[in-house]
Amino acid sequence: MKLHRNIKIFLNYCFGPLLFIWLSWSIWHQVKAQPHLAQSWTSIRESMASTAIFKLLIVLFLMPLNWAIEALKWKRSIRHLQNISFLNAFKATLAGVSFSVSTPNRIGEYLGRVLYMEEDKRIKAVSLTMLGSLSQLLITLIMGFTGFCILFPVMRTQPEFSGLWLQVVLYGVLGVLIFLLVFYFRISWLIRWINRFPRSAVFSKWVNALRDCDTPLLLELLLLSALRYTVFAVQYLLLFSLFGVELSIWNGWWGVSVSFLILAIIPTFAIAELAQRGYITKTIIGLFSTNLTGILLATASIWFINLVIPAIAGSVLILLLKRIWREKEEGQKAESGNSSL
Fold it and tell me: Of 27, 137, 158, 216, which one is least surrounded by beta carbons within 10 A?
């Protein structure tokens, strides 16, 4: 336990900041060396001052739609466990974002959501929430693998990418994708396998909640995940256009898909996440555009709009939720005191 805690402290407070500093320095160095840097800044300022600013407004509108789809997905995944309103599902999703921004790979998302569940159902809700995350990961892997196949001829000609490395990633992603697809549509196998263990009762609360996840529900979660993925990718394409990153929709779509894939398979630390996103997106989209400044501005804008703003809203909701709990507890104590009299 102590070793695990020490590793967590090292990753969050030592490795994370060091990674952020190194990536930030590397990005800044490459931006300064960018040809026609002044021209790129001029183009960006002109775009922001023109009617193209409506693209930013569309991106802002798509942010609540993005999380609304995620809230609907979560609501549908837990419907057999607890009937929760869409509004509460949306609040729980934002609360999860608030927790997630301070944890590696945003695993704290589960903690925020289960706060809106009934206390005796929170453990079961975690496994169902993970199922929704798995559906999103599957869409990311499918689109990312497709993007890798399409962009492979371009990527292997660049010195940043090794042909052997690309093949390892390509076949590795394919293997993981096939395994997760089988696992996703055969969850009953996992339940039976775990229940065979002598002390399976410890895990039964986690996995038995998945018994009611039939194929129509699994397909529905995948469809909603694909819809959310599309919204996210469109946001990127709109901001690329706004910040003067000249590339076709085809290259932009598949470049973003590969970027999403890489971000999904590497460890992400909260303090270094923006730098990691910028470095990866700059590397992939940089295959088709020399406007590194525009690429980085688009990435930073997405990070702020889709994560920071919802996280702030989620933190406010958590404070309000704690206040409601406190008032409820005080009311129960008052009632018990009156009854004793």
Answer: 216
pLDDT of residue 56: 86
**Residue 88: Cβ-neighbour burial (10 angstroms; 0-12, 13-18, 19+):** middle
Mean pLDDT, the chain, as a whole number? 77
338 in a domain, yes or no?
no
Print the domain residue range for 250. Answer: 48-323
pLDDT at residue 220 in the model = 95
Could you tell me if residue 155 is inside a domain?
yes
| Number of domains forming the structure of the chain | 1
Helix 309-340 crosses helix 86-100 at what angle (to 10 degrees)?
110
Query: Using one digit for the tens of pLDDT, what is the confidence trace for 271-326?
Result: 556 777 888 888 899 889 888 888 888 888 888 888 878 888 887 777 776 555 55
* Residues in CB range of 259: below 8 A, 6 or more apart: 277, 280, 281, 284, 285
Is residue 286 included in any domain, yes or no? yes
